[in-house]
Specification:
By secondary structure, the chain is of the alpha/beta class. It has helices at 3-13, 48-56, 81-91, 101-105, 110-117, 145-156, 184-189, 202-211, 220-224, 227-238; strands at residues 26-29, 39-43, 61-64, 95-98, 121-126, 134-143, 162-164, 170-179, 194-199, 214-217, 243-246. It has a six-stranded mixed sheet, sandwiched between helices.
């Protein structure tokens, strides 16, 4: 399978039509679209460490959730961190494919994986008009916010979470991995008593008790990284002969 064939297959499974208008993802860099794909490295982010690992260990493709290039590059100047990675990867013959908000929105993507990890059932999409990226579902039985926070840590591997208690048991849960402040109100209107995201703004956290909404923020990385296993499965479906590895791109520590 070539680079172009792999990207075409993944784009069929994760359609670009699901992307938010402001997003930028896809085939981020591609020195040779006809090059064979033998080894793929999957990571949430294309950090410099991830790029160097791909170069030093002979990978053909990096497959990520967060885009390698999000804002336009005005020049390929190695003084710019993003341009530096692009130059390094192109010179090494490595392509990068990133699937961002379309992977959030697609069935079986970031938020379905997160909902499944929490054991939610009757899961359906929710979100503002035209951007139903999040998911909302029910727990098998209600639990306290403290118990739910412990469940989140087990499911995501997050060492710490932020929690805001609105005085309600946790039963109907909305989830949106990554940055979810803009969808908190949509989660409440969809009927959630509890909203889980990666990171939430201070005003969203402080206003939640007055709106009757429990909140849990478990970290941008930890709420999205589980989807890497799904990306591996999609590559395996495309060509079982491709060797696939996952590497952590987390740069955050807790002191």
């Amino acid at each position: 399978m070539t680079v172009r064939e792999l990207y075409t297959h993944l784009s069929h499974e994760i359609p670009s039509a699901l992307s938010c208008e402001w997003d930028n993802d896809g085939l981020m860099c591609c020195p040779n679209e006809n090059a064979p794909v033998r080894r793929v490295l999957v990571a949430l982010d294309v950090t410099l460490d991830v790029a160097e690992k791909a170069v030093s260990e002979g990978y053909d493709v990096i497959l990520s959730h967060h885009p390698l290039i999000f804002r336009p590059l005005r020049a390929l100047d190695p003084a710019d961190p993003v341009a530096k990675k692009v130059i390094r990867l192109l010179c090494a013959g490595i392509s990068v494919m990133s699937f961002h908000t379309r992977l959030d929105a697609v069935e079986g993507g970031v938020n379905d994986v997160l909902a499944e990890a929490l054991g939610l059932f009757d899961v359906i999409p929710f979100g503002p008009d035209g951007e139903a990226i999040g998911r909302i579902g029910s727990l098998a039985s209600p639990m306290s916010l403290a118990d739910f926070a412990a469940l989140v840590k087990r499911a995501t591997g997050a060492p710490l979470v932020q929690a805001v208690d609105a005085g309600r048991p946790v039963s109907r849960v909305a989830v949106l991995g990554g940055s979810g402040s803009g969808d908190a109100e949509a989660a409440r209107r969809a009927g959630a008593d509890t909203y889980l995201s990666g990171e939430l703004k201070h005003d969203v956290l402080t206003d939640a008790p007055e709106k009757g909404l429990n909140l849990v923020a478990a970290g941008h990385f930890h709420t999205e990284d589980p989807v890497c296993k799904r990306l591996c499965a999609l590559v395996q479906e495309a060509d079982p002969s491709i060797e696939i590895d996952v590497t952590s791109s987390n740069t955050v520590t807790y002191c």
